[in-house]
Design a protein that fits this description.
The chain is of the alpha+beta class. The protein is about 25% helix and about 25% strand. The chain has helices at about 50-75, 125-140; strands at about 15-20, 20-25, 35-40, 75-80, 90-95, 100-105, 105-110. The protein binds zinc ion.
Length: about 140
């Protein structure tokens, strides 16, 4: 645990599920919609610092959350990414990718970069919307 690390002291009302080694959280930025990130519960920075137990659990989590996203929005593909450019504390991104448009909460969402590398379109949505999205994904768990 480091004092300055926001993920060591992680608090959010967008937590989807807590696991023994990881916490799954709905991203504040809904492009593409259903973006989830998965944070390691202890401070580590590089992929190769993960224990076998943490890696095995991560694989199970990704499998479980893919099913959730398929039920929720039926994505055409998934990206799994670990970068650490903005926050080094190990976290993975599970990003659903869409050929089609998604209607949710009276809004239409698209994935303008489908078939290509994801472009940074970080734009947080409002809290009411995000809580609705979290509840919807939770209902598919
Ligand atoms: Zn940390």
């Amino acid at each position: 645990m480091t004092k300055t690390c926001s993920k060591c002291n992680f608090k959010s009302d967008l937590i989807l599920k807590k696991y023994p080694h990881w916490i799954a959280v709905v991203s504040e930025s809904p492009t593409p919609i259903g973006w989830i990130y998965i944070i390691l519960k202890r401070h580590a920075e590089y992929f190769d610092e993960l224990t076998d137990a943490e890696l095995i659990e991560l694989k199970k989590i990704i499998k479980e959350l893919k099913k959730v996203l398929i039920k929720a929005f039926n994505p055409d593909w998934f990206n799994v990414m670990q970068m650490g450019n903005m926050s080094r504390h190990i976290h993975f991104h599970l990003i659903p990718r869409y050929k089609h448009k998604i209607r949710f909460a009276n809004r239409t969402f698209s994935d303008p970069d489908y078939g290509n590398m994801l472009v940074n379109r970080y734009k947080p949505a409002n809290k009411i919307f995000l809580l609705k999205l979290k509840a919807y994904l939770k209902s598919k768990l």
